[in-house]
Amino acid sequence: MKKILSALAAAILVSSCGRSLLGSGGEVTGVRTAAVNEPTPYGMVLIKRGAFDMGPSDKDSLWGMMAETKGVSFDAFWMDETEITNAKYRQFLYWVRDSIIRERLADPAYGGNDLFKITEDRYGDPVTPHLDWTRPIPWRRPNEDEQLAIESVYYTHPITGERRLDEKQMLFRYEWYDYTSAALRKHRLNPADRIRNTDLTIDPDEVVMISKDTAYIDEEGRIVRETITRPLSSEWDFLHTYIVNIYPDETSWVNDFNNAYNEPYMRMYFQHPGYDDYPVVGVSWEQAAAFCVWRTDLFKSSINLPAGQTIEPFRLPTEGEWEYAARTGKNEYKYPWATDELQSKGCFLGNFKPGSGNYTEDGHLITSRVGSFAPNEFGLYDMAGNVSEWTATVYSESGPRQMNDMNPDLRYNAAKEDPYAMKKKVVRGGSWKDVAQFIRSDMRTFEYQNETRSYIGFRCVRTQIGFSRGKGKK
Fold first, then answer.
1. Beta-ladder partners of 65
2. By C-alpha distance, which of 286, 276, 202 is closest to 244?
3. What count of other Cβ atoms lies within 10 Å of the Cβ of residue 233?
4. For 9, which of 33, 325, 340, 355 is 20 to 30 Å away at the CA?
5. Which of 162, 387, 429, 157 is nearest to 252 (CA)?
6. Which residues lie across from 426 on neighbouring strands?
């Protein structure tokens, strides 16, 4: 019996890693946490941590550029090899479409049946019917009532007879918790935690005002966005709610260019399978940010996460990350390719506007299929030309001078009531319509966060936690 008890005691004093907890001699040996085995994000390249001089290193009086650099460092991050394509963005759009249909399949107004039950809607509200996936669904054609729910997200043009998705219904609602604002000492719920200086008297009745964004849909189906300012009361004050219409603005092809016959692009660029692997355009900064949230949830659902544990989200790159990735952590060259030349062996190295009125000399009139040109040394395609790309950074004339030298960034979540000028976001990379000067890796410009253009797209990044082994700087 004593031998059995001794064996049990020894078994208890063995860690989950098989290492004995005995014999530590009373020293601190540490307690290790279990790691979640995350798969490599599909279609992404790992950029190793590193440092470089951000900003233009040479003066260009013709374009008004001043040589002004700043030494900065970055942690490792994943970045999409290519810009987000029409096909990938369409997956997001169809997810929203199917979510709406699933809700309506149980709605009596659309012919709900016993295959469905009321749980919660795609917004998390426990009132809207959802499909009961625990029950088998026969493979058959939709009946008359189910067809009604499906058809409800489409409309037929009264003049042309064209049947297409009703873009007005393609609304994506998401919530975003502002960890940074919640972490600030001035926002601590306990007044005693806001001041470390013991010489100062703490005011227990101090009122701290906090602003949060919220949104809802009114009785007429319109999105109403509000910024609420109120006294800080709980952690919920740092949770922001957004509702975004995610359908790309196909009319940008016409509105961006006066007196040009771009109607075929307006009708076909996002719809036609021939453009599946072309970069999505006509997407605002707000829509790109919503895509990142959806992609995070999609990725999270594929991982067996322990209860209460989360993952690093997909997001838009900071301005600094984008430039670091485009220039492969170097300052020698103006473009992503390892030369200041625009051609190699008579072939252009990117999709841009080579000459006045000449868009086709590089082999393309508008955008090109992603990955049509050679990647840079990090394995990233189209970091110059094709489409300009949204970043997470708010635009400021002073740029990097205002930023920290570690993971530099500058963010401001503009309220609805803020002046429109405060809603500028940095855009990088230049596009198919730009001349060579504007596709330089050190050239920065901006666009308003709710604006859509036929020459602006995006790609995602995701911070890598822990030691990095990737294609970054040696």
1. 60
2. 286
3. 10
4. 33
5. 387
6. 446
- Please determine, for residue 129, whether its predicted confidence score (pLDDT) is greater than 70: no
DSSP characters over 18-49 = S-BSTT-TT-----PPPPP-PPPPTTEEEEPP
Among 290, 334, 341, smallest CA distance to 314 is for 290
| Integer Cα distance of 182 and 178 in angstroms | 6
One-letter amino acid at 387 equals V
Quick check: 307 pLDDT over 60? yes
- Tokens 């935690």 correspond to 193
Q: Which helix (H) or strand (E) holds 298?
A: helix 285-300
For residues 80, 410, 294, 296, the Cα torsion angle rounded to the nearest 10 degrees is 60
Q: Band of the pLDDT at 310, cuts 50, 70, 90?
A: confident
The pLDDT tens digits of the residues spanning 385-417 come to: 999 999 999 999 887 888 998 998 999 888 888
Classify 448 as helix, strand or coil: strand
CA distance 53 to 73: 9
Tokens of 240: 């922001």
What are the contacts of 66-73 at 24+ separation with CB within 8 A?
Answer: 68/401, 69/331, 70/400, 70/401, 70/403, 70/405, 70/408, 71/405, 72/320, 72/324, 72/400, 72/403, 72/405, 72/406, 72/408, 73/49, 73/405, 73/406, 73/407
- The tokens for 231 are 């006294």
Beta strands in 218-311 (DSSP E): 223-231, 239-245
Q: Say how many CA atoms lie within 13 Å of 225 toward its Cβ.
A: 15
Residues 6+ apart with CB under 8 A from 307: none
What whole-number distance in Å separates Cα of residue 458 and Cα of residue 338?
Answer: 23
Q: How many CA atoms lie within 13 A of 472 on its CB side?
A: 25
What mean pLDDT do residues 259-263 have? 96
Sequence-distant (≥ 6) Cβ neighbours of residue 370 within 8 angstroms? 82, 83, 85, 277, 278, 279, 381, 382, 386
DSSP for 145-160, please give it. HHHHHHHTTEEE-TTT
Give the DSSP H or E segment for 255.
helix 252-255
Report the predicted TM-score, pTM, of the whole model to 2 decimal places. 0.87
